[in-house]
UniProtKB/TrEMBL annotation:
Residues bearing the modification 4-aspartylphosphate: 60
Span of domain PAS: 141-177
Organism: Roseospira marina
GO molecular function, one term: catalytic activity
Highest taxon above the source species: Bacteria
Domain GGDEF as annotated: residue spans: 291-424
GO biological process: phosphorelay signal transduction system; regulation of DNA-templated transcription
Keywords on record: Phosphoprotein
Domain Response regulatory positions: 8-125
Residue stretches making up the PAC domain: 207-259
Keyword Phosphoprotein tagged: yes
Stated name of the protein: Diguanylate cyclase
InterPro entries the record matches: CheY-like_superfamily (IPR011006), DGC-Regulatory_Protein (IPR052163), GGDEF_dom (IPR000160), Nucleotide_cyclase (IPR029787), PAS (IPR000014), PAS-assoc_C (IPR000700), PAS-like_dom_sf (IPR035965), PAS_fold (IPR013767)
């Protein structure tokens, strides 16, 4: 307790002589200086307490406007954050016990002991009260914070968990207390992960990072975990405090943002941004393992007539149905994307030559020519598909997209509802 600047005391004593004697004795005593504000009634004290703060209240229980333990109850109700020491002429054990039970830190009989003893009792009372206030505030934070907290002893045995931990993990306190911290083990991380965690704790006194833990219901979920070593006054390990933050919601939000950023909102297919990443990955894998791949560029024939005659709502329905057909006609390992309008692309990351790529394209043409669930009137939908082979027609995204697009336009100029492989020189892009 830092008392170098002294303590402020509110003295509530209706006997002027007793008040002066108390102040004289405490002023004469060695140690921490005490500054007094003296009032003679409980009402005056309450007014002062409403506008000022004090380190300690010295009170006589017999006042003109209040008597006995009710005086103490009123003071404690008004300012439970201030230490209270009872200085009274009543030498009654029951009253002394009642005073402590109602919030007093000490009970002293006037005339018993010198100023040094009284001052020491006051200082101890203030320190006990401050320590208790710190514990109360810490306990309130421990219980009410949304972050899960686990406290263990030096061997890793759990001694306390807060309500947030129970809410996050699904475990009751009784199921966790006295257990070892292997409750954190989810089966996702390798044993080396935990060995490294404890080694860093021993070396630095802290560890922080993402960890997967298993809930009581068996589900595995991501958490952000921070563990700190708790040391005693001489540096020995007294235990550990682990703080858990449930990041499953954040992870879902991140995944949703990623989905929105990489998915075509109309069809649910990959959008242009994701297509570029997938094509780059396909090129890299094909080059590394020296295998063939293909890019199919598909543009619908007759879609403008559907939009013009049946409206955009029907047009959107047709595009969604086409997206489903394309996705269902290729392998799980193949990728389908919509670049915009009625333009689609299909990445075949592994094909056995031009004949295999052409077979997939023919299958796609057949899917598009099938009747549609919605009424598209007299319009007749087909598609023109251009194919670029990897590595024959390029090893860059720009080269391959240019080649497949060029081949698609050759298919349109040749009468539509057709497939064309790129046949020109590879562009130097």
């Amino acid at each position: 307790m830092d008392t170098r600047d002294g303590l402020s005391c509110l003295l509530i004593e209706d006997n002027i002589a007793d008040a002066q004697l108390i102040q004289f004795l405490l002023d004469e005593a060695d140690g921490t200086p005490l500054a007094f504000t003296h009032v003679t009634t409980l009402n005056e004290a309450l007014i002062d307490l409403s506008r000022d703060s004090f380190d300690v209240i010295l009170v006589d229980l017999s006042l003109p406007d209040s008597q006995g333990l009710e005086t103490l109850e009123t003071l404690h109700s008004a300012r439970a954050d201030i230490a209270i020491v009872v200085l009274t002429g009543l030498d009654a054990t029951e009253t002394a016990i009642g005073a402590v039970q109602r919030g007093a830190q000490d009970y002293m009989v006037k005339g018993r002991g010198d100023g040094q003893l009284v001052k020491r009792s006051i200082l101890y009372a203030v320190e006990r009260h401050r320590a208790n206030q710190r514990l109360l505030l810490a306990e309130a934070a421990f219980r009410n914070i949304d972050t899960g907290i686990m406290v263990t002893d030096a061997t890793g045995k759990v001694v306390r968990v807060n309500p947030a931990y129970c809410r996050i993990s699904g475990y009751r306190q009784s199921e966790v207390i006295a257990s070892q911290t292997n409750v954190l083990r989810s089966g996702v991380h390798e044993p080396q992960f935990y060995d490294d965690l404890w080694r860093q704790l021993r070396e630095t006194g802290a560890w922080e990072g993402e960890i997967w833990s298993r809930r009581k219901d068996g589900k595995v979920a991501p958490e952000w975990l921070r563990i700190n070593v708790v040391t005693d006054a001489v540096g020995g390990t007294a235990g550990y405090v682990a703080i858990f933050t449930d990041i499953a919601f954040r992870r879902r939000a991140e995944q949703e943002l990623l989905r929105q950023a990489t998915t075509d909102p109309l069809t649910g297919l990959a959008n242009r941004q994701l297509f570029n990443r997938l094509l780059a990955s396909t090129i890299e894998q094909a080059s590394r393992y020296q295998r063939e791949a293909a890019l199919l560029f598909l543009d619908l024939d007759g879609f403008k007539a559907v939009n013009d005659s049946r409206g955009h709502a029907v047009g959107d329905t047709v595009l969604r149905e086409i997206a489903g057909r394309l996705r269902g006609a290729v392998r799980v390992s193949d990728e389908v994307a919509r670049l915009g309008g009625d333009e689609f692309v299909v990445i075949l990351p592994e094909v056995r030559g031009r004949n295999a790529a052409a077979a997939v394209a023919e299958k796609l043409l057949g899917e598009i020519k099938r009747p549609f669930a919605c009424d598209i009137g007299a319009a007749h939908l087909t598609a023109s598909i251009g194919i670029a082979m990897i590595p024959d027609h390029g090893l860059s995204q720009d080269q391959l997209v240019h080649a497949a697009d060029t081949a698609m336009y050759q298919a349109k100029r040749g009468g539509k509802n057709a497939i064309r492989f790129f046949s020109g020189p590879v562009a130097a892009c």
